Amino acid sequence: MAQPTRAEVIEAELQRIIPIVVVGLVVLLAGLFLLYLSTIATWMPFVIGVIVTIAGVGIAGYGGWQYMQLNNLPSYRVLCPYCEKPTTFLAPPTEDYSCEHCHRIVAVEAGQIVPPLVLVCRHCGAPQKVSPRAKMFICDNCNGQNDLKPARPGVAAAPAGAAEESVEYMTYDLVLVEAGHNTDEVLEILCTVLAAPRDHCRGILKDLPMVILVDLPRRKADSYRRMLREAGAIAEVHPTGQYRPPAKQGM
Ligand SMILES: [Zn+2]
Ligand SMILES: [Zn+2]
Question: What number of helices (H) and strands (E) belong to the chain?
């Protein structure tokens, strides 16, 4: 586990503090017993009972004080961009964490939560929220598997001097940023391009920006973009896996 949550830190601290309190209480009870003994047995000096009792109170009190200090731990709430439930840390998260509610990986870059990509299932056309770290995702709607290529394919694999060829092998993602005014025509194009039912496409238009197609050859991506632009929409082409949606306000 990378960065512990506040709850995890408190749990670890309790594992340490509880034994201290228990030992303190045992010593306290022993001291009270010795005090009692000193009243019935003459060989038992009263002062030893007092010392042991005070020691017990001291140890238990120290444990109790440490327990109170846990309330003063700093707390920093982060909302999961997938299930919108909070996870509390001691400091703003600096690295990816796994949401304790939905168990999805929340990507963190430069101290900021990276919003999920919204991708369109290539099987049924339903829009899906996907972690930018995901290599694949299973569609919630049709259970179809969608493979996502790692960022910048071909670049790492291309030998020196083959730069031009690697461009040929690169694939691109088509992002619909805004539908514009002529939503009916954009909807028409979406349904054709995605081969998806109309209500799915309507859902896509409500949740922009969205990566609507992945792993396209450059020419195909550009021609889809042109079609969408001619209908008044704003569309962008990004190398596969490179697109990052703008951070939403209030995150
Ligand atoms: Zn979550
Ligand atoms: Zn699907």
Answer: 6, 13
Residue 89, token pair as written in the block: 């840390």
pTM above 0.70, yes or no: no
**Distance from the alpha carbon of residue 87 to the mean position of ligand 1, in angstroms:** 9
Q: What share of the chain is helix, strand, coil (3-state, %, to 5)?
A: 40, 20, 40
- Of 215, 212, 206, the closest CA to residue 225 belongs to 212
- What span, in angstroms and rounded, lies between the C-alpha atoms of 68 and 42? 41
> How far apart are the CA of 196 and the centre of ligand 1, in A?
28
Distance CA 135, CA 147 (A): 6
The closest ligand to the CA of 82 turns out to be 1
Domain 117-239 part of CATH 3.30.1390.10: yes
Number of the ligand closest to the Cα of 85: 1
**127: CA distance to ligand 2 center in Å?**
8
Unique residue bearing structure tokens 């306000």 = 249
Provide the residue ranges of all domains of the chain, joining segments of one domain with +.
Answer: 6-70, 76-113, 117-239
**Which range has the worst mean pLDDT, 51-60, 102-111, 126-135, 223-232?**
126-135
pLDDT digits (tens, 9 = 90+) for 153-197: 444 444 444 444 444 567 888 999 998 888 889 988 888 888 777
Q: How far apart are CA 222 and CA 29, in angstroms?
A: 80
